[in-house]
Amino acid sequence: MPRILAASVFSANSGESAAFSRSSRMLILLLIISGICSGLRSGCFAMANTILVKRLRRSLYAYLVFQDISFFDMETVGSLTSRLGSDCQRLSHVIGNDIHLIIRNAIQGTGALINLLTLSWPLTLPTLIICSVLAIIFSIYGRYQKRAAKLMQEFNACANNVAQETLSLMRTVRAYGTEGEEVERYKRWLDELAFVSIRESAAYGLWSMSFLTLYRFTQVLAVLLGGICIMNSQLSPEQLTKYILYCEWLIYATWRVVDNSSSLLQSIGACEKVFHLMDLLPTDQFLSQGVKLQRLMGNIQFVNVSFHYPSRISQVPILDRLNLAIQANEVVAIVGLSGSGKSTIVNLLLRLYQPVSGQVSFVLLIYYVSPYHHTGSMTAVCWQIYMDGLPLDELDIRWLREKIGFVGQEPDLFNMDIKSNIKYGCPREVKDEDIEWAAKQAHAHEFISSLPHGYQTIVDNDLLSGGQRQRIAIARAMLPDPAILVLDEATSALDAESEHYLKGVFHGLRNESRSKRTIILIAHRLSTIKTADRIVVMDKGQIIEMGDHTELLQKGGLYSRLIGAQAKSMA
Ligand SMILES: Nc1ncnc2c1ncn2[C@@H]1O[C@H](COP(=O)(O)OP(=O)(O)OP(=O)(O)O)[C@@H](O)[C@H]1O
């Protein structure tokens, strides 16, 4: 290109019009070709980038979804969603753009340097020194920028978290009149973000100033040194033109390399967490294929089970050597003060967490022969949860979860229509009649039918009351006809009439023709559990009383005190 440019300029000056027009035609042709190539290249890179972002986000999402549940206790939703969104976008920018620009400019710079050295190495030396100074300044700035990028990413995630929390809890914010405080909380993170961002911008300004000064200095130096060489007849005017052009190329390429490296470092700083997440292994529950029984009867046994949440290891165990046996088709209610560990039992049953036992030395060994072991050998076990006599962790996890219907304290429904919510996770094909059957069992059919779009109504918080959401969640748990039904405070938001019907439904269900089932009820409202076959009373992670309603009342322990307190508050 510079050769053609120089040829056309020189030929025009010498009046060789034919050579000039040939050079001009070639120049125009080259411009068109280079335009087409650049357009194609940009288009290809943009497309590659889009595909890359999609793949990155999909695989990172898959990594997250298969993580152990304790991972979600320690990470915030805001930070995970920002990893999935902006960080993946940045990472793909690094791979699709920065690296390619760095390589291209490095090749251009090397070419210019070789040409300069061929022209005159003593003249090349000052330009090389300037390029090295540029690289040193950048390495200092780059290190700072990487740190700043990491901080900015963290503050951004915190700000997102606050916004997400406040906007999703807007009713509570309005009820407590804390709009101002929430704006202030968000602003605090924005202030932190702005503080780092302003300092980073100032550093960028200093870096740009250094570069531009050195760039202009190179131009002046090239003209000065070149001029001296021409006066001493060491260079021809054509060589001077080349010298100035190559100097500009070299310094420009150096700038582009370090500038793109800076963007690369910034993105790498921000994307370290993405790499970290991708390094995590999925929960081993999904890695091994466990045993699938022909039929789950619903016998459950907790043997010396101790547990503490991974995020609170240093504290006292939430469950302390718990022993509990539940027979198939039994209705067992678990009651106790708040925080006594009732929901934790369910978490362990669903294998959301793994039980631990730090108390092995105090525990007698229980010998147990599993009929499912191929060898039939005796297995020494000191703590375990058994399902139909088989250790829980030997069962296929997906199969197990299909067999357990679960309604949690918060009826978590998805932003889809009611029908899809009811059949959510159901392992078999279901007909509309099955969905209606489940809704009727949960006393939800009547209110669903009265909605303008019936079962096609999209679930959203404003449309449905807490009790209605809870009934849909109960219908969802009942639809697959589970062998074990777990209701963790599932009636807390129901009105008295629905609750009354549901009490009958729970008991009807276990003797229902479809199949029999084990039911575990966790309830604060003790009126719902009076008719349970057995009531388990918990305190501080231990079972302190067990029996039916009448037996426990006669005992005069915690259960009778709780009943008394509730009766008093009702009165
Ligand atoms: N994911 C978690 N991470 C850390 N600690 C937890 C977690 N879930 C519960 N805990 C703690 O474990 C203890 C027992 O909680 P659990 O939910 O089992 O009690 P609970 O008897 O069901 O209480 P409630 O009746 O109020 O629902 C509590 O102190 C609680 O703070």
UniProtKB/TrEMBL annotation:
Domain (ABC transmembrane type-1): residue spans on this chain: 1-266
SUPFAM superfamilies: ABC transporter transmembrane region, P-loop containing nucleoside triphosphate hydrolases
Keyword ATP-binding: yes
Superkingdom of the organism of origin: Eukaryota
Localization annotation: Membrane
Keywords, in A-Z order: ATP-binding, Membrane, Nucleotide-binding, Transmembrane, Transmembrane helix
Membrane topology of this protein: Multi-pass membrane protein
Keyword tRNA processing assigned: no
CDD domains with a match to the protein in the record: ABC_6TM_TAP (cd18572)
A Pfam family assignment: ABC_membrane
Residues in ABC transporter domain copies: 300-565
Transmembrane segments: 27-48, 123-142
Stated name of the protein: ABC transporter B family member 26, chloroplastic isoform X6
Organism: Gossypium hirsutum
